[in-house]
Structure formats: structure tokens, C-alpha cells
Amino acid sequence: MPTLDRTAVVSPAWRDRAGFAGVDVLRQPPGTLTLDQRADLRRIARRLKTSHDLAVAFAGRYAAFPGQLAGAELRELTAVRQLLARYGLSDPDGGREIGRFTDAAAQSRYEELLGRGSAGRGAALRLLAQLAGETAGTVASALARMTAPDVRHAYTQLHAAAVRQAQYLQAWASR
């Protein structure tokens, strides 16, 4: 994997129907982050890991499932993790396996969501669409307060991807 400023960079840029444009966040100039902005970045990382891990779990469970979703979400999480590393922040769940979280509340939430999505393929797709909508709201709120150019750029892309994913998943749920 190529590096920029000694941080792994996913390349080349990519886009798929499931969402994320694959911005190279480290090519944007860094800024400074307040304590609240740092907390937002960590919160978004955890939210993205939750969505990604659920997408992987459901894709393994249901034969007809949007295959590009987990890959798009992994690219989103990778971009946010690159930003965490750039700003010297720990990833709340970095290095944890699929479906495992360091925080007991996050672990409990994941298991509750996994249970809800286990009611069937449609339930899983609707749940993931709901999570994408919630992610869009979380990112939009954080974006409104963000001044660092690199994080602002990534949040703009993440917001657009989350909106696209919600639409994509709603369309799949009606199939």
C-alpha cells in the first residue's frame, strides 16, 4: 500500500454505486482540531466500523445482498482512520475483528442491531439504510463545526456517500 507522510494511503481513487468516492484525504492540507472535533472524528470512526461490520455479517448471511456495500464502507473507515493517525488520535476500535468493539455500550449496540437485522434480508437492508441516514446526520453535524481542510473534505465526501448508500439500500430492500 503506498504511503504519504508515512501513513498508508488507499489508491487509486474509486467510486461505486454503494457510495464512497475514495478521496485521498492525506492530499488535503491538515488543520487543527478542537477536543470536540477530535471526539467527533472518533465517534464517526466507531459508527463506520459498526455499519461496515454489520454489512459484512449480513452479506455472509443473505445470498442476495449488495456486494459493494462492505467495500465502500471499508474505504470510508480507512479514510477516517488515516485522519485519526494524521492527528495522532487513537482509533477507538482499531485492530478489532469484525463485530468486536472496545466499549461495552458499542458492543451491546452492535449485537442489538445484528439481532434486528437477523429477522430477514429486508430487515437487514432497512436497518443498514437507517444507519446510513444516521451517519449522514452525524457527519453533517460534525461538518458544520469543522475547519481543518482535510477532515472537512473527507466529511463532505462521507456525507454524500451516506446519502447515496441510504438510497441504494432502500432500493435493494424493495427488490
Plain-language structure description:
A two-stranded antiparallel ribbon has the order 1-2. It has a single domain, classed as Ferritin, core subunit, four-helix bundle (Ferritin, Up-down Bundle), CATH 1.20.1260.10. It contains 5 helices and 2 strands; from the N terminus they run E-E-H-H-H-H-H. Strand 1 and strand 2 form a beta hairpin. With 175 residues, the protein is mainly alpha-helical. The protein has helices at 35-61, 68-86, 104-117, 121-145, 149-173; strands spanning 3-4, 7-8.
By secondary-structure content and strand pairing, the structural class works out as: mainly alpha
Rg value: 15 Å
Alpha plus pi helix count: 5
CATH topology: Ferritin
Q: Mean pLDDT, as a whole number? A: 86
How many domains comprise the coordinates?
1
Task: List the main descriptive attributes of the protein structure presented here.
single chain; DUF2202; mainly alpha; 5 helices; 63% helix; Ferritin-like; 175 residues; two-stranded antiparallel ribbon; 2 strands; Ferritin
